[in-house]
Amino acid sequence: MPLVTMLLSMNIGLVSGRCQSDQQSLLLNLKKTLVFYELASTKLVKWNSTPDCCEWPGIACDDGGSGRVISLDLSFEGITGGLDDSSGLFSLQFLQNLNLSFNGFSTTLPVRFANLTDLISLNLSNAWFIGQIPNDISKLTKLVSLDLSTNSFFGPALKLKKPNLATLVQNLAQLEELILDGVDISAQGSDWCKALSSSLPNLKVLSMSNCFLSGPLDASLAELRSLSIIRLSRNNLAAPVPEFLANYPKLTALELGLCQLNGIFPQTVFQIPTLEILDLSFNELLQGSFPEFHQNLSLQTLLLIDTNFSGTLPQSIGNLEKLSRIELVGNNFTGTIPSSVANLTQLFYLDLSSNKFEGRIPSFRRSEELTYVDLSRNNLTGEIPSGHWEGLLSLTYVDLRYNAFNGSIPSSLFAIPSMQRIQLSNNLFGGQIPEFPNVSSCLLDTLDFSSNKLEGPIPSSVFDLANLNVLDLSSNKLNGTVELHLVQKLRYLTVDLSYNNLTVIASGKNSNLSSLPQIQMLRLASCNLRVFPYLRNQSKLFHLDLSDNQITGPVPGWISELSLLQYLNLSRNLLVGLERPLSLPNLSFLDLHRNQLQGSIPVPPLLIAYVDYSSNNLSSYIPPNIGMMEGENRHLEYINYELVEMWERVYYQDSITVTFKGRELELVKILTVFTSADFSNNNFEGPIPEVIGQFKALYVLNLSHNALTDHIPPSFGNLSHLESLDLSSNQLTGQIPPLLARLSFLSVLNLSYNRLEGPIPTGSQMQTFSADSFEGNQGLCGPPSNLVCFNPLISACSNTNGSISGIEIDWNFLSAELGYIFGLGIVILPLMFCKRWRTCMSFDFENQFAANLLLIKGSVGRKLEM
């Protein structure tokens, strides 16, 4: 128990005698001046309910019968505004304990706190005081506990700069507990370390997380031999962890998460006999490995999330009999999970995800308090005996995704009454899905068995799980018929039955689907659907995937009534059009490729990040308002839909298939900045809209295999993020815009089989593409193509129109061309006196000679430039 809480709890119980009248008057005046939320108050609202103020909630008087108020606790009272100097608080001269935490004062810290010179404990944490901490606090020389911490969620932090930390603590020699989390101290390592060690010899609790402290930790901290709790997380220490941290004889908690630590962590810290909590999370440069754990260690919580630890988990981990929480997420641990984990009988939270563990998993039957197990994203294999999970009556979460488990799904998981989430996707589980017993009392909200080898029909009991929010059975070998109206019993948020051998029956408007629950995500790809399911009343639907089915007819007009829809995939069907243009203000992804759409493009009047109309029979022009998203300064965040219902959160990441760099790719994790437009394999004609050059966030553009004419818009040079551009197999004319050579991210370019002409723009970017990118354009010349560009001056006499033409090198005549240079000197002098020649080619002898030299160089593959 923190010291401040212990002191308050002890003193609040010391109620003896009647409080003095002046004390009661001061308290009533304090209540009168405070602004507080009465519905949140449990103390102030009851003041004056009895004659004796010592009996009022939050008040404690001394045990000498004097009736003096020595403890005042007004935490969580919903107080707003400031503290008036006349409020009476600062006249309670005998106060030893004051707790105003978790209120909303939103004013600077009053200097009159210094009047309360008998204070032993001052707790102003998350009271929403702002500004500089006054130097007068240092006058409270009897303080044993000082808490000025602020959580950023509760408002702006206090500052401790002028005066600084050294000035604040210089007179607080009795202090044992210093909690300044969230206070802006902004001090260098040697400064703040020496300030503490020189002034606070009795310090036991040091908590200064998120204080903008720098490192490294100075050796002077080793002088604080009484330290039991060190919390310095979320500071920029940027240094190795010093060995002296293992020398504190009473250390119980060491929290250094998110401190940019580096180097190798000293193994001796793991072996501190008194250490109960160790948190080194989110230090990606911190390396280390586990020692052998001897018996009689006190470690209860071990957090190594996203560090760079490696090695094996030693068998001696079973000696940590008090270990209750272990998180080793995102490291490089290898080897097997030792069987001695079964000895951790106090374990309630186990997360070994995102490592390289292999082999089978041990039994957890003896860990009867276990509530959370996450072994996902490892290399674990083998069958999981059903007995591994028996007797775990508190288990709520099991995540075994992305391993290589095989055999049947353990049926014992389904019999645990407290179970809420089972995630077994991306394994090799086979056989049938077991039936669920006691479905009426089952608390299961997430069931994810996707990407396995499960067979047979879906058990009927699945559709009786009344609390189920997420059902994902996609990418298995399940068979049978599923009637969509069966889900009307459920509280689904997400349903995914895609890519099985299922036949989903979802009849049209007249079918009885009116009682379907409000679904937020529905994925029925490759489910042998033949008609469009009637989802008109699904007002919360934001993700709909009906791709790879046999749906015929038009896209129904009521789709536009689904105003929250963000993702719509109707690709690979037999759709022939839209009943009316889509009008979906929140749509980000639209995929209609490989249908039988005809006529003009159905333009959505919106900003969209991904659109695919490819492989249809669309014709006419590409309209200028195709709706692609503009701009380039958006955050690089992943599309991650958050489903919230009854304070529960389910995250489901989108996946789409795009034609990118010449092949189809499945993008499971999609950046919001990723934008793609694919109009290929249609019958579009006319010019490419100039407005496309304004879509600066565009990554992939495919307009190939159409009948587009006119030139390539020069505005394409503005597409600074473009990585793939395919304009092949059209009827484009004119020259390639020189600005395309400046697109530094462009890694795929296909302009083949058009009517382009002129020199290919120079620049290192263009030279990275093969000649195949430009083939089929008879008028193009220059590298990387095999056609050499003629200089117009060279052919002026023989070609009076002065046009630029291409010539292919005939290497059989190379020797004759080399001989030309010798004959040149013989004939050049008579030509100097030819008037007709001088008129036709009005340049001097030196330029003519240089031109012919360059012509010879060009004939062996180098570009002629004048």
TrEMBL record:
InterPro entries: Leu-rich_rpt (IPR001611), Leu-rich_rpt_typical-subtyp (IPR003591), LRR_dom_sf (IPR032675), LRR_N_plant-typ (IPR013210), LRR_R13L4/SHOC2-like (IPR055414), RLP23-like (IPR046956)
SUPFAM superfamilies listed in its UniProt record: L domain-like
Membrane topology per record: Single-pass type I membrane protein
Transmembrane portions of the chain: 811-833
First and last residue of the signal peptide: 1-17
Gene3D superfamilies: Ribonuclease Inhibitor
Main localization of the protein described in the UniProt heading: membrane
GO cellular component terms, A-Z: plasma membrane
Domain Disease resistance R13L4/SHOC-2-like LRR: 91-283
Chain ranges of the Leucine-rich repeat-containing N-terminal plant-type domain: 22-62
Pfam families xrefs: LRR_1, LRR_14, LRR_8, LRRNT_2
Alphabetic keyword roster: Cell membrane, Glycoprotein, Leucine-rich repeat, Membrane, Receptor, Repeat, Signal, Transmembrane, Transmembrane helix
Cellular localisation: Cell membrane
PROSITE patterns listed in its UniProt record: LRR
Record-stated family: Belongs to the RLP family.
Record's protein name: Uncharacterized protein
Organism: Salix brachista
